Amino acid sequence: MTQMPTTGAGAALDPDPAGADRGSTRFRLPTRRDVLGIDPFIVAVVLIPLALGLAAHVWWDRLFFPDSRYYLVMTYRDMGYDAASALATQQKVTGFPAAPWYFAASDPVWRMVQPRMLYPLLSVPFVWATGPRLGMIAVPVLSSLVTVAACARLTQRLYGPAAALIAAGALAASITVTDLAVALTDPVAMALVALVLLNLPIRRRIQGHNHVWLAVLAVALCLTRQTTSVLLGLVAAGLVWALMPARRGERGQRRDWLIATAVVSTVTVSGQLINTLLAPYDISVEFLLASHQRSMSAALAHLPTMAWQITRAEAGMMARTDVPLTMLAIGAAVYVVTTAREVDAWLLVGGSLGTYALMLANGFPSFLRYECVLFPLAALCAAGLLRRWLPEPPRRVPRQCGPPAEKPPGRWRVRYLAVASIAVCGSGIAWSATHGSASLVGDVPTAPAAAAALPGTPGAAVPVKAVSTQTVLRDAVEQAVRAYQVHDVGGLIRYFDWRHPLRYVPAGPGDPGWSTRMADGSSVIHYGDFVEMAPVEVAAGLSRSGRCVPQSLRVTSRRVDEYGEDVTFTIADRSGQVHRGRATVLYPTRASSPGTISELVYEP
User: Fold this and answer.
1) Residue 404, class by beta-carbon neighbours within 10 Å (0-12 exposed, 13-18 middle, 19+ buried)?
2) How far apart are CA 195 and CA 214, in angstroms?
């Protein structure tokens, strides 16, 4: 009998190259096995150092930002804590103030944050086990690891271990990926997009369980950030590729793209419509404020200039601070330009267009927070470019570990997965909707002080001291005059709460609140909406276009209670004309605060 060779081509076909003697005691090297579809060398060189770097980041760097206060309060309310305890805890952890009106049903920022219930829900067990500081960072850290691991697995499947090592290694070495691991929703969205890519029919056929996971991930993204345009751009680009003339072996993949597009787009659009109905958020108003224009036509005319400013700022910051990410972006761009027939190039283009729409609606640079959902796509395309110069990866023949399955997996597994997904998603949404994502109050009045302070509301703070209303109003008008004349708005915000409604009189057309004026000419705004956009226009209404003389302000009548004062006053302008008005000042709830003005209205 001719013996099969133990080396060369014959060994590659032999399931046991060591020979047919199963009883031999000769030492054999163990077969290298992938870890979750990733080469063990990549795990050791890329993922483990990334985990150590993230641990150092958690130990040394800043982890909480202004928006983190919302997610921490939502997490504690999901854990069953009352609003007062949640607000007090977040103040100690984040250092940022918050009050019940931050979670009012009428507040536009809360309506934007309210649907983002996934991150707080996922953080509950970690906060329970380790406390708020580490618990709120656990999900973002795991999200960064999942992003890099998913990119490594996908690029290894498509382009081999060498390309995966370089692309995933560059992504892991990115300082931006590490810095994104903070108490915000951006790293969660980035990880979800990477998992979406794993389940899309990119150079392979997909099955029913992939469709279920795509639907689940689309729901998760709707509960993480407003990323509708990103997902729709992604699957729309895949659909365009599927409608192109198919090459040999691609017809099945293109049919799969039709199903995947239908699943993702249906779930995403439905989720966005539900969010809009339950927590309406007008992005057109945000776009108008972001462009700092007085009308939508002027904002659209300003769009090219704003797009160039944002692109220059984001690209410049990436080039200066993050060389690995810059190289990935350049490689991905070259791949897209030189490879128009491949589906991953189309995916990057579609995702980029959707992300760019969000960036323009935001109106100012996000320091790569909005662009982070494109990082997995950039790594995928950069790996495709690297594959052109790397050797062909060797084919691995799996060792036979046992008899083949008698029956292929049945369809019932997919049905069980779908039912379980619906049950988990439905119960999580129902719990958060009645706990962490539930509004604390409805409309917040601006006067009188006893109502504007929301006494009796869970979490409402008691004033720590009484202040002179006349002094507060004088100082606020003085800062408003300064803001209007020299565009120095730094001191003005001290006299207004970031999210408490403010009633004032807009000075002219196009000023904040002009289109929503009431009979007395006043309008209600949130000063925090204009801190970076239009504070000078707000200052114009507070100071009669800079003409008021602050030292001439006199309080003529007052009504005092334990939460603040409602007063009438007179003030002269530089021409000597005396103006009358009314104001409401809330006593400070923090020792460092001078007091909060919730209403300052001049008589017509």
Assistant:
1) exposed
2) 9
- Sign of the four-CA dihedral 78, 83, 89, 90: positive
Closest residue by Cα to residue 45 from 141, 160, 148? 148
CATH code matching the domain that covers 469-602, chosen among 3.55.40, 3.10.450, 3.40.50, 1.25.40: 3.10.450
Q: Is the pLDDT of residue 212 over 50?
A: yes
Instruction: Determine the straight-line distance between the first and last CA of the chain, rounded to whole angstroms.
Output: 110
Cβ–Cβ under 8 Å, residues 598 and 454 = no
Q: What is the gyration radius of the CA atoms in the chain, in angstroms?
A: 29
405, two tokens: 């399955």
pLDDT for res 393 = 63
Read off the DSSP letter of residue 397.
P
The pLDDT value recorded for residue 493 is: 85
Q: Which of 50, 350, 325, 328 has its CA nearest to residue 181?
A: 50
Q: Residue 23: is its pLDDT beyond 50?
A: no
Dist CA 323 CA 93 (whole Å): 33
The answer to whether the beta carbons of residues 566 and 449 sit under 8 Å apart is: yes
Please, are residues 545 and 573 in contact by the beta-carbon 8 Å criterion? Answer: no
Give bridge partners of residue 601 from the DSSP assignment.
582
Q: How many CA atoms lie within 13 A of 361 on its CB side?
A: 18
Q: Note whether 211 and 263 are within 8 A (CB).
A: yes
Other CB atoms closer than 10 Å to residue 314's CB: what's the count? 18
Least confident piece of the model among 31-45, 226-240, 381-395, 397-411? 397-411
Residue 1 DSSP SS3? coil
Give the 3-state DSSP-derived string for 50-62, with helices as H, strands as E and coil as C. HHHHHHHHHHHCC
Q: For the chain, what is the largest distance between any 2 Cα atoms, rounded to a whole number of angstroms?
A: 118
pLDDT tens per residue across span 514-554: 888 999 999 999 888 775 555 788 899 999 999 999 999 99
Residues 86-123 as b or e (16 or more Cβ within 10 Å = b):
bbbbbbebbebbbbbbbbbbebbbbbbbbbbbbbbbbb
CA distance 199 to 197: 5
Between the alpha carbon of residue 115 and those of residues 272, 364, 440, 476, the distances in Å are: 10, 23, 15, 36
Q: What are phi and psi of 81, to 5 degrees?
A: -75, 150
Span 129-158, pLDDT tens digits: 999 999 999 999 999 999 999 999 999 999
Range(s) of the chain covered by CATH 3.10.450: 469-602
